[in-house]
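Deliverable D2.4 — example input (structure tokens):
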């Protein structure tokens, strides 16, 4: 089973982020529907809903007399509580269940749109503060994706369309950071969108390409564990390694 599971992750990562995230969101929706369906079936089987309604009615009718033993409002509230309990016992929860399913779908669609927003030109219309918050959603989803698929690269892919990419990746140069943490940018500019945050523990692969922009050198890098490509500032790389790279 492990070979199939991790092999499928190998092929799944060859898809674009927008497609991968759409599949993941749909899987989460199905799982949520299944979980709520199981909970609803358990409640129906054990009649927990009916027990809860009866318990609320019993407690309410027992407490009300202490606040207004001979008062008309207490008598009316007591009768209203009994009518409410009878009405709830008579009608099923189908309408509420459908509303819950719609709410889940709408919520997951919003998460999906926010998760792929950094991949669209619309991200450029947001201010820096809001842009960072949107990028956090994408980064969190990708980190969760990496955690679920951890160890996949030690297995062979089920399909073969990304074998060439994997063989090329094995030959890449591993970057060693000179800082505790650093950001990876979408373009060779610190004003562009930050696509990931890396530390010394992360695997960073040099993509045999660099740019010099306003006296600053940028390295094109790839994060194999998160399937993210971007640009890294040379100041974040160990000086001795940077000299070797530029010497190439």
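Example output (designed residues):
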């Amino acid at each position: 089973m492990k070979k199939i599971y991790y092999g499928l992750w190998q092929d799944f990562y060859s898809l674009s982020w927008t497609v991968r995230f759409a599949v993941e969101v749909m899987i989460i929706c199905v799982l949520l529907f299944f979980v709520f369906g199981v909970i609803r079936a358990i409640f129906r089987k054990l009649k927990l809903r009916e027990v809860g309604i009866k318990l609320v009615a019993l407690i309410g009718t027992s407490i009300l007399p202490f606040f207004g033993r001979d008062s008309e409002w207490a008598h009316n509230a007591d009768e209203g509580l009994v009518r409410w309990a009878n009405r709830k016992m008579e009608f099923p929860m189908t309408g509420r269940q459908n509303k819950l399913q719609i709410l889940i779908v709408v919520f997951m669609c919003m998460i999906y749109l926010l998760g792929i927003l950094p991949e669209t030109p619309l991200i450029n219309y947001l201010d820096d503060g809001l842009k960072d918050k949107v990028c956090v959603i994408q980064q969190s989803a990708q980190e969760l994706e990496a955690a679920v698929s951890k160890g996949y690269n030690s297995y062979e892919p089920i399909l073969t369309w990304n074998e060439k990419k994997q063989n090329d990746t094995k030959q890449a140069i591993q970057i060693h950071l000179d800082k505790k943490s650093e950001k990876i940018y979408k373009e060779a500019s610190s004003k562009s969108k930050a696509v990931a945050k890396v530390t010394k523990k992360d695997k960073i692969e040099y993509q045999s390409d660099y740019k010099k922009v306003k006296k600053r050198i940028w390295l094109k890098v790839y994060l194999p564990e998160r399937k993210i490509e971007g640009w890294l500032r040379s100041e974040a790389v160990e000086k001795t390694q940077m000299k070797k790279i530029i010497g190439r």
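Residues 162-170 have pLDDT under 50 and may be disordered.
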